[in-house]
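Proteins fold reproducibly. Take a tokenised chain:

. . .
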Amino acid sequence: MAGIIAGGLLGVLGVPAFGAIHALAIVPIWERLAHGVLFAAPSGALLGWSFVELTRAARAPSTSVLTWGFGLLVWLTLLPSVILANVLRMMGVSAAARDRGDVVAVAMTALAALAFAHHLAVGWKAKVSFAVATCGLLAASAGPIPVINSPRARALFLGVSALWFGAGALLPFCVRFVRRFASVGRRSGVEVPTSVPPVP
């Protein structure tokens, strides 16, 4: 639960950060950002859940990939889909073919996620959670960024990449904070004397 809450909060906080990046790289889209919370919060929650599952089942718990490098891991997992989408654009294929390419991109992301998770963790739950989370992030992002379109698109890609790296680095601290806050709440609840009547 701590991972889900921490990831969801980071997803919500990432929306205005993405808005700032988009405004600097391309054009302001502040008026269209509100609905992005509906996608960012569940996507972040899935990533937080996956992070906790990976750390629980990690082959080497102290590895930097599962501390400050989780964002880099997510970025590497999504990189094949970015390459595929932009190669198809360079080839000048039709929009219908690119739509079919999106299905292939999801499959590539899932396979990459399973491969990375298999290297890092044991157990099917951790592996499936990372595949689900990264595919969810790909869907929430409305697909890969067309970096070949313009320098501004490339600037947006770099900004979003930095956002992922930063969120991934913050996620372990946020998970620990949520756990600490929850443990304090539980201790406070236990310490209430049983002789004190409940507040109506």
